[in-house]
Specification:
This protein is α+β, with helices and mostly antiparallel strands and 217 residues long. Helix content is 17%, strand content 29%. Strand 1 and strand 2 form a beta hairpin. The model has no long low-confidence stretch (mean pLDDT 96).
C-alpha cells in the first residue's frame, strides 16, 4: 500500500503468514545464529544506534547476505518480500527511469534492538550515490513497547546522519508503527530513524538495500 508522507511516499505491507510460513523455524534459527556470532556480539553499536545495546550484521553483509542465508528464492517469506519490493519500486516511480525487473542487492543485514536503544535519523543514500535506490525493512519480532519507525521531513540529502527523532519538531515527524510481519519500503534518501525501544524484549528486523540499472534508451 502506498502511503503519502510529506512530499514523498513510502510503501507498507503486512505479511499475513508471518507466523505460519513454511520454513519459519529454520529461518529464525538462522537469524538467531547470526546474533550469536562473536563478530556480531563483540562489535560495538552501529553509528545510528544510540542509548541501549544494539546488535547488527551490517558489517558482515558481504559474508552473510540475508537473501542467501534465508534462501529467498524458495523461502515463502523471501518470495513475498521480493514481490513487495518490486511492487514498491513501481508505486514509488522508480520504473520511470530504472529497470526494476533487474534488482540488484546492495547491502542486506539483520538488526536487533535492546531496551532504551533508538536509531538516530539517517539516510542510506544521497543524490550523488549510484546505489542503493530503495530500502526494505521487514520486522521479524516486535514486542509491546517497541521502537517505531519515524520519517523526518528534511530535504537536505547531503546530511547522512542527523539527530534523535524526538529532537525534531513534531510536525516534521511521521511515525509508522512497527509490527511483526510488517514490511516498509522507502526511497534510500528518505531521512528516518526510530523512537526509543522501551521493551525489555528485543526488536528484530531485516534491512535490505537494493538498486536498479537505468532503463535502456
Amino acid at each position: 500500500m502506498l502511503v503519502p508522507v510529506f512530499e514523498q511516499a513510502i510503501c507498507v505491507f503486512d505479511f499475513e503468514e508471518y507466523d505460519s510460513f513454511e520454513g519459519k523455524r529454520e529461518s529464525y534459527s538462522t537469524l538467531e545464529s547470526l546474533f550469536s556470532l562473536p563478530d556480531v556480539i563483540n562489535e560495538g553499536n552501529v553509528p545510528d544506534a544510540k542509548g541501549g545495546r544494539a546488535l547488527s550484521t551490517a558489517h558482515l553483509y558481504k559474508t552473510h547476505p540475508i537473501p542467501q542465508l534465508l534462501n529467498f528464492k524458495t523461502n515463502p517469506l523471501g518470495d513475498w518480500i521480493l514481490r513487495r519490493i518490486f511492487e514498491s519500486a513501481i508505486l514509488l516511480g522508480f520504473h520511470n527511469t530504472r529497470d526494476v525487473k533487474k534488482l540488484k542487492y546492495h547491502r542486506t543485514w539483520a538488526n536487533r534492538m535492546a531496551y532504551n536503544c533508538d536509531a538516530i535519523a539517517h539516510r542510506h543514500a544521497n543524490n550523488d550515490w549510484t546505489i542503493p535506490h530503495l530500502v526494505a525493512i521487514y520486522y521479524t519480532d516486535v514486542p509491546d513497547e517497541s521502537a517505531d519507525l519515524v520519517f523526518i521531513n528534511d530535504k537536505d540529502n547531503s546530511i547522512m546522519r542527523g539527530s534523535h527523532c524526538h529532537e525534531y519538531p513534531a510536525e516534521k515527524q511521521y511515525l509508522v508503527k512497527s509490527k511483526t510481519g510488517r514490511l516498509v519500503c522507502h526511497d534510500a534518501r528518505f531521512l528516518h530513524g526510530t523512537t526509543i525501544h522501551k521493551s525489555h524484549l528485543p526488536r528484530t528486523c531485516l534491512v535490505i538495500e537494493v538498486g536498479f540499472p537505468p532503463l535502456n534508451k
